[in-house]
Amino acid sequence: MSMNKQKFIYKTTGILTLVAVVISVIIAAQNTKASVPPAVGSYLSTIAGSDWIVMAQGALGTAPSDLSFLKTIDGQTANDYSTYILALTSLGKDPRYFGSENLVETLRQKANGGQLGDTALVNDDMFGVLALVSAGVPIGDSLVVSEAVYIKSKQLADGSWDFSATTTNGSVDMTAMSIMALRAAGVAASDPALIKAVAYLAGSQK
Taking the mean position of all CA atoms in its chain, how far away is CA 37? Predict the structure, then answer.
């Protein structure tokens, strides 16, 4: 496994879970009046220089005082660009002009044959779609459309996905990310792929 793949998987293992929890609680709060404990925000503020943490802070309506680290990408993969774009858009910043590089255009240049980034991965396609749409790329854009088709093509028989394009075992977190990516790309909730994915999540619930 390459260093970039190791870095991305390591970065997402704990932080993605925390970000997902924060965002999920905020979404649930619209109906249940739930709130994120202040301690969570305090904890997030102690972690500097992380695009993932910025996403969580953006969901909380806060932002780190120093965003200068987001002006320079810390890697060259599609995932690296996608997470930086998502961090910036979570704060209402335009990733085309925030730093010295147009992050959206560079991400688009990583497309090949209708999919983004490493052909051995599917998670870079999930995050890529979310990043492009969050930056204002329309769902009718040819890359967004082809990515939705590609992501659906990698769904496993049980309705799940994982980060790898060749896996035979899916995971709850990557299935959830696929659902979000496909919905962001304009795929209807009634689409058979999403119905199977939701059924997989329901069946995985404890």
Answer: 24
What tokens were used for 3? 């260093």
Backbone CA torsion sign across 104, 108, 110, 115:
positive
Closest Cα to residue 9, out of 164, 172, 193? Answer: 164
The distance of Cα 110 from the centroid of its chain, to the nearest Å, equals 16
Query: What are the pLDDT digits (tens) for 117-159?
Result: 999 999 999 999 999 999 999 999 999 999 999 999 999 999 9
Q: What count of other Cβ atoms lies within 10 Å of the Cβ of residue 127?
A: 29
CA distance 124 to 197: 19
| Residue 43 one-letter amino acid | Y
Residues of the chain under the 50 pLDDT cut = 1-14, 17, 21-23, 25-30, 33
How far is CA 82 from each of CA 74, 115, 125, rounded to the nearest angstrom?
12, 14, 9
Three-state DSSP class for 139? coil
Residue 12 class from Cβ within 10 Å (0-12 exposed, 13-18 middle, 19+ buried)?
buried
What b/e string do you get for 128-148 counting C-beta neighbours within 10 Å, with b at 16 or more?
Answer: bbbbbbbbebeeeeebbebbb
